[in-house]
Write a structure and sequence with these properties.
The chain is globular. The protein has a single domain, classed as Rossmann fold (3-Layer(aba) Sandwich), CATH 3.40.50. The strands form three sheets. Strands 1-8-7-5-6 form a five-stranded mixed β-sheet, with helices on both faces. A three-stranded antiparallel β-sheet has the order 2-3-4, with no helix packed on it. Helix 4 crosses helix 5 and helix 6 packs antiparallel against helix 8. Strand 7, helix 5 and strand 8 form a beta-alpha-beta unit. About 30% of the residues lie in helices and about 15% in strands. The protein is of the alpha/beta class.
């Protein structure tokens, strides 16, 4: 779904769910109907291009990952956006990518027993840290033109936090298969405590997750696993469209073992901002978008 980022007559963040979008639609028309893709001179580039034009400047897509992912996961999207004349920048969240520290037992030769019980070096991170880093990126990008903030899966909770903190810096937000938290007290409350039997999430919880989050401080997987059963469960959960032979490389480069389990409140904003109350969702989103209350110890569906 998309939503304007600042309150007003035609840009009211209270109306969170105006439309749903697919990844292809983001390429074609940006985050909403008021963002248009035209062949014209971009004032920030000084040349004709098939550029996303918002207001008086060229917009930049700032991309926020979901749980357990690094910024590399956005690479196919970034490539396609840039090839179509847009600007795009994935955010590397704290404790992710080059900023992470692997738990004991993870690197080869792996010690699976040690990995299952090792406390995570990044266990202390939370949604507060993700929000702070994303705001830093958004502030710098906004100096060069409008910002379209995109969150995938758990990244939607970061988008909501940023939008409530600095709405004046955003032109649009995009929730791409993402959490749009509006009424539950904590983010994991939107994930099912008991997954549907036989579903990808249920299978992943059975074979792909490692250790007890109460001991490790994180939700943990093993992206370097060579176990065919684990790889199949991971593929079904995060990349069903991939060729099976691609899965090990994607997991190794675009995901990481640990995602902090400590999740802060979504923190609803002032009246008119994102995440104020469930009544602000479009009726069909209220019917289809509400997940069951409660969450299990492993909530990395994203």
């Amino acid at each position: 779904m998309y939503a304007p980022a600042t309150p007003g007559a035609s840009r009211n963040c209270g109306t969170v769910a105006q439309s749903t979008v697919t990844r292809a639609e983001i390429y074609e028309r940006g985050a909403g109907p008021s963002i248009r893709s035209n062949r014209q001179v971009c004032p920030r580039r000084g040349r004709a291009a098939e550029s996303l034009i918002v207001g008086d400047g060229c917009a930049t897509f700032v991309l926020v990952t979901g749980a357990g992912a690094t910024s590399v996961l956005w690479n196919p999207v970034v490539v396609e956006l840039v090839l179509r004349g847009h600007r795009a920048l994935p955010v590397e969240l704290p404790g992710h990518g080059f900023d992470t520290v692997f738990p004991a037992g993870y690197q080869g030769p792996q010690d699976l027993g040690m990995l299952a019980g090792a406390a995570s070096p990044i266990a202390g991170l939370s949604l507060d840290d993700y929000t702070e880093r994303t705001i830093e990126v958004v502030r710098r990008v906004a100096a060069h033109g409008p910002v379209v903030l995109v969150g995938h899966s758990m990244g939607g909770s970061t988008v909501t936090r940023v939008a409530n903190a600095v709405p004046e810096l955003l032109e649009r937000m995009v929730y791409l298969c993402a959490y749009c938290c509006v009424n539950e007290p904590v983010v994991p409350a939107y994930a099912p405590r008991v997954p549907v039997p036989g579903s990808p999430l249920a299978r992943a919880r059975e074979v792909a997750f490692v250790g007890d989050p109460r001991q490790t401080g994180v939700s943990r997987t093993n992206p370097l696993s060579g176990d065919p059963e684990v790889l199949a469960a991971q593929q079904a959960l995060v990349g069903a469209e991939l060729d099976t032979v691609q899965v090990p490389a994607v997991l190794a480069y675009a995901t990481q073992p640990d995602e902090p389990a400590r999740r802060a409140r979504p923190r609803a904003g002032r009246p008119g901002h994102v995440g104020c109350r469930a009544a602000q969702l479009h009726p069909h989103q209220r019917r289809r978008g509400r997940a069951p209350r409660g969450a299990g110890p492993h909530d990395r569906r994203c």
